Amino acid sequence: MSVCIIYHSETGNTRAVAEQLAAATGGDLVAVRDLANYSKVGMYLKGARRAMRKDLASIEPATIDVSGYDIVVVGTPVWAGSPTPAVNAAVAALRNIEGKPTVVFCTSGGSPRKTLDTLKAMLAGRGADVRGAVPLTARDAKKPEAVKPLVDLVRQSRKEMVVR
């Protein structure tokens, strides 16, 4: 069962979780880059406003075809209680997501607020079969034991596919 891990990371926390998940599941990483190239200040001032408005960023890769994968994972930092504009764009850029088991995660300095609910709704709106969500803090990103619930959720989704 192949796993595609799609994520956006500006500070490295979401990337750290995605890399740990890839190591544990044998998944492939797809790093989404926001072409706005925010400065640290710009990320908080401009990016947070765009995240609250659910704006879509210009991203690389511009399209993400998941037809060759059995399970899709999408990870985002929390900006102003929302997924980043790059992740909003990544969800819009997905091809062949319909019916795919999907898991989401976020990393935050505090509370994820509505980030995971928003991300799950966006993916469900694209036809994904969203199986669950895991919030992680910036500190959790550096602890393999904290990432274990995410790994377990992906593995459980994998087992459910085999049973069907």
Strand content: 25-35%
Q: What is the element string, with H for helices and E for strands?
A: EHEEHEEEHEEHEH
Give the helix level as a range of percent: 40-55%
- Oligomer state of the chains in this structure: single chain
CATH fold title: Rossmann fold
The unreliable regions are: none
Query: Helical element count?
Result: 5
Largest sheet: 5 strands, parallel
**What is the β-strand count?**
9
Return Rg in Å. Answer: 14 Å
- The name of the CATH superfamily reads Flavodoxin domain
Distance between the termini: 13 Å
Structural class designation: alpha/beta
Total number of domains: 1
Average pLDDT value?
93
CATH architecture: 3-Layer(aba) Sandwich
Q: Kindly report the spatial arrangement of strands forming the biggest sheet.
A: 2-1-6-8-9
CATH level-1 class: Alpha Beta
Overall spatial form: globular
Can you give a write-up of this model?
This protein is of the alpha/beta class and 164 residues long. The chain has a single domain (3-159), classed as 3-Layer(aba) Sandwich (Rossmann fold), CATH 3.40.50.360. Helices cover 40% and strands 25% of the residues. The protein is built from 5 helices and 9 strands. The chain has helices at residues 13-25, 40-52, 85-93, 115-125, 144-163; strands at 3-7, 28-31, 33-34, 59-60, 64-65, 71-77, 94-95, 101-108, 129-137. The strands form 3 sheets. The protein has a 5-stranded parallel sheet, sandwiched between helices. It is globular. The relative contact order is 0.19. The mean pLDDT is 93. Residues 3-158 form the Flavodoxin-like domain. Pfam families: Flavodoxin_4. GO terms for molecular function: electron transfer activity; FMN binding. This is ArsR family transcriptional regulator.
